[in-house]
Amino acid sequence: MLGVLRTTLALMVMVYHLFVQLLPMGTYAVFGFYIISGYLMTLIMHESYGYTWFGRYSFAVNRFLRLYPQYWAAAILSVLLILNVGPEAVAHYRGSMVLPASYKGYISNLLMIFPSWYPNSVKPRLVPPTWALTVEIVFYVLICLGISKSFIRVKIWFLLSIGYVVVTFIAGLPSNNRYFPAAAASLPFSIGSGVFFMSKDSRIYDLYLKLKVSSAALFILMIAHCLVWVVLSKRRIGGLVEIGFYMNIVICTVLVYSVVSGGKIGKINQSIDKFIGDFSYPIYLLHWQSGLLASLAIFGEGLHGFSIRGFISLAVSIPIVCMLSFASMLVIDKPIQRIRAKIKTNKRLHGIGDKRFPVSASIESVEEVLKA
Pick from 59, 165, 129, 148: which is nearest to 282 by CA? Predict the structure, then answer.
């Protein structure tokens, strides 16, 4: 039941980029995505693919099919906007949305790999938020290779991730070193992988039950906590804003654990949650283009930001991004899902996972595996 959470995080990123433009709204959401990805990738490696060479190959193929077709469609839309609206107008709207001028730029945008310590600084990026997907791909590879194959590995990984964060503080490095690089994302990914193992521990589950905190309450807490720090960040509190950043990691961790342990965010069934969750990825890919289309239609120019016009543009862009996302899901993702399902049900995959964690432990975990 992670669908509602994933799409909520995607919408938070959209609101941050197109309207609020205050860090907590975006950074909190991206690290929430990382925690979910750490959990899901570890889950499917253990319960769907396993650690044989064929299992790893199948994982890689399915990751490719999950990420790239919809991404390429979003990149093509950006190209069409640049060609029709004009490169200067689009670049003024979002500086990274420009046509590549070199082979390196074409290759980076084709592969969605932006090689830099700060991948967000690489230009052009036809789909601006895909710098974070470069980071995700790094950890997909590491998880496929076995960094989360056992809980002891995850514990070591987590401690090394904490060590990186501590070193950045001791060295006086700016906060962007604790957010943009892949090294910074190591912490939430390791936590997400740890949630997989913790979800198998009955002692942790008994403790969770004693706390009597519902997934819905945790979800509301996540949103409220983010809004509080959005307001606080307006007061120029400097480095104190990072307190909220790490508190968000804790809240998201408990929320993800709660949901994967059977909790529900709302009174919706599994199929509806899955349908809502399907919107998360295309919304993440298409919100900048949708915002440009909305502002052009209303104001005749590309604009975004914290203003009345920015809010109106955001409001109009939401139905646009939902329609574009639904089209992407229907035309691109749905046919590919059938191919991915065949790969997952290949008989050579059966029985090759970690024997401590039997495949298809529950109906809900199977649903998450099939979509991951």
Answer: 129
Distance, CA of 259 to CA of 256 (rounded, Å): 5
Q: Helix H segments across the chain?
A: 3-15, 23-44, 53-85, 87-93, 103-111, 131-145, 151-170, 182-198, 202-211, 215-233, 241-260, 270-277, 280-299, 308-328, 334-344, 363-371
Whole-model pTM: value is 0.91
DSSP annotation of 239 reads G
Spell out the long-range contacts of 295-302 with Cβ–Cβ below 8 A and sequence spacing 24 or more: 295/93, 296/85, 301/89, 302/85, 302/89, 302/90, 302/92, 302/93, 302/94
Q: pLDDT tens, position by position, for the chain (372 residues)?
A: 789 999 999 999 999 999 988 888 999 999 999 999 999 999 999 999 999 999 999 999 999 999 999 999 999 999 999 999 999 999 999 999 999 999 999 999 999 999 999 999 999 999 999 999 999 999 999 999 999 999 999 999 999 999 999 999 999 999 999 999 999 999 999 999 999 999 999 999 888 888 888 999 999 999 999 999 999 988 777 678 889 999 999 999 999 999 999 888 878 888 898 999 999 999 999 999 999 999 999 999 999 999 999 999 999 999 999 999 999 999 999 999 888 887 776 656 555 544 444 433 333 333 344 345
Asked if residue 91 lies in contact with residue 123, where contact means CB atoms within 8 angstroms, the answer is no
Burial profile 64-93: b = 16 or more Cβ within 10 angstroms, e = fewer: ebbbbbbbbbbbebbeebbeebeeeebbeb
- Could you tell me the CA-to-CA distances from 273 to 85, 319, 340 in Å, in that order? 37, 19, 20
Distance CA 222, CA 288 (A): 24
User: Can you tell me which residue has the tokens 């120029």?
Assistant: 236
Domain residue spans of the chain: 3-371
358 in helix, strand or coil?
coil
User: How far is Cα 184 from Cα 179, in angstroms, rounded to an integer?
Assistant: 5
Both structure tokens of 163? 């060590």
Q: Are residues 43 and 196 in contact, defined by beta-carbon separation less than 8 angstroms?
A: yes
